[in-house]
Design brief:
The complex is a heterodimer of chains A (130) and B (190). Chain A has 130 residues and is an all-alpha fold. Chain A is built from 6 helices and no strands. Chain A is globular and about 35 Å long. The longest helix of chain B has 29 residues. Classes of the chains: A mainly alpha (130), B mainly alpha (190).
Chain lengths: 130, 190
C-alpha cells in the first residue's frame, strides 16, 4: 500500500512539472500576449516611445541596444546577437543572466506568458509604428 | 559557508536552518552586518532601485501633469494628488537608499519628455486620464513584483513588496472608478 501511495505521488508530481520550460517550445498567442504586455511590461515600456525602458516595436530581429534615442547601459551598447524568439525567451526569463550589467531586472518565470509576449512583439515588430 | 557570501544570503540561510534561535546568533549577526555586500550584487540592487525610482518619477509627473490639465473634477483631483503624494513618499525612500549606497539617484525627466512618452497630449477627458492612471498603476505594481526575484537584500525585498502593494491599491481604486470588472483568475499581479 505504501509503495502504491509513493507511485501515485510520483505520478502526480510529474503532472505539475511544466512540460516546457522554454517559451520556444510553446506556441504563443499574440492576443494574450498583448494583454500580458500591457499589464506586465507596460509599467516601463511602450511599443513606440522610450520610457523607463526602450520602445519595443521592431525588437524581434533587431540587434539589442538599437531603439533610437534610448540611453542604454554599457552592457547593451556592446555588439550582441539579434533578438530572436529564443534569445528573447532567455532574456525575459532572467535578463542579467543573458546580458550581465543590464538595467532590466524584471523576470518572467512563466514560459507560456513569455511565449505570448514574444508572439505579440513579433506581430507588432512587423507593423509600422506611430 | 564561504567567507565572501553576502550578509543577506547568510541571514536567509541562518533563518532557514532555524539557527537564529541559537545562543550565538547575536555574534553571527554582528559579523554578517560588518561584511559589505559583494560589488556585483550591490550594483544589481542599485540598478533595480534606479528603475524603481524612474517609475516613481514617471508616476509623479503623470499625476502632476494630468492634475494640471483641468480635465479632472475636484473630488477626483483630490484622490489623484493623494496618490501622487504616495509616489513622492516612494521616491523619497528610494532616493535615500540609493544615496546611502553611494550612488546618485536618477533624475526626473522634463515634463515635455513625459508628455511625449505617455502621450499625455491625447488625453481629452477625465475618463482618459483615469484609464491611463489605471494602466500605469497596474504596470508599476507588476514591475515591482517582477523585480523581486532579482533583489538580494531582504530589506529591499520588503520595500518592493510595500511599493507593489501601494500601486495595487491605487490600481484597485482606479479600476473600480472606471468600471473595470474584477479579474476572475487568482494572481492578479505578477
Amino acid at each position: 500500500m505504501r509503495n502504491r501511495l509513493i507511485l501515485v505521488a510520483l505520478s502526480a508530481g510529474t503532472l505539475v512539472v511544466p512540460a516546457a520550460s522554454h517559451a520556444a517550445d510553446l506556441k504563443g498567442d499574440p492576443a494574450r500576449g498583448q494583454a500580458r504586455y500591457e499589464s506586465s511590461c507596460g509599467g516601463c515600456h511602450s511599443l513606440d516611445q522610450n520610457r523607463i525602458g526602450p520602445a519595443h516595436r521592431g525588437v524581434v530581429g533587431r540587434a539589442p541596444g538599437r531603439a533610437p534615442g534610448y540611453a542604454y547601459s554599457a552592457a547593451l551598447r556592446k555588439p550582441l546577437p539579434v533578438w530572436t524568439p529564443a534569445r528573447l525567451d532567455a532574456w525575459l526569463r532572467d535578463p542579467p543572466a543573458l546580458i550581465p550589467g543590464t538595467k532590466m531586472t524584471a523576470r518572467f518565470p512563466d514560459p507560456q506568458q513569455r511565449a505570448d509576449i514574444i508572439a505579440y512583439l513579433k506581430v507588432e515588430s512587423s507593423r509600422p509604428g506611430r | 559557508m564561504s567567507n565572501d557570501s553576502d550578509p543577506a544570503d547568510r541571514r536567509t540561510i541562518l533563518r532557514s536552518g532555524g539557527l537564529l534561535a541559537a545562543a550565538g546568533v547575536a555574534v553571527l549577526g554582528a559579523q554578517a552586518e560588518a561584511k559589505p555586500m559583494s560589488a556585483h550584487r550591490r550594483r544589481s540592487d542599485i540598478e533595480t532601485l534606479q528603475v524603481a525610482l524612474s517609475l516613481e518619477h514617471e508616476g509623479i509627473a503623470a499625476y502632476d501633469l494630468a492634475g494640471g490639465s483641468g480635465l479632472l473634477k475636484p473630488e477626483v483631483l483630490k484622490i489623484g494628488l493623494l496618490f501622487r503624494d504616495h509616489h513622492k513618499g516612494h521616491r523619497d525612500a528610494l532616493e535615500k537608499i540609493i544615496r546611502k549606497a553611494g550612488a546618485t539617484p536618477v533624475a526626473r525627466k522634463t515634463d515635455a519628455e513625459y508628455v511625449k512618452a505617455l502621450d499625455l497630449g491625447a488625453l481629452k477627458s477625465q475618463e482618459d486620464v483615469l484609464k491611463l492612471a489605471t494602466k500605469l498603476e497596474k504596470g508599476a505594481a507588476n514591475a515591482y513584483v517582477s523585480q523581486l526575484a532579482s533583489l538580494k537584500d531582504p530589506e529591499l525585498l520588503h520595500l518592493f513588496a510595500q511599493l507593489s502593494s501601494d500601486e495595487a491599491v491605487h490600481w484597485a481604486i482606479l479600476a473600480n472608478a472606471i468600471g473595470q470588472p474584477i479579474p476572475a483568475p487568482a494572481f492578479i499581479f505578477g
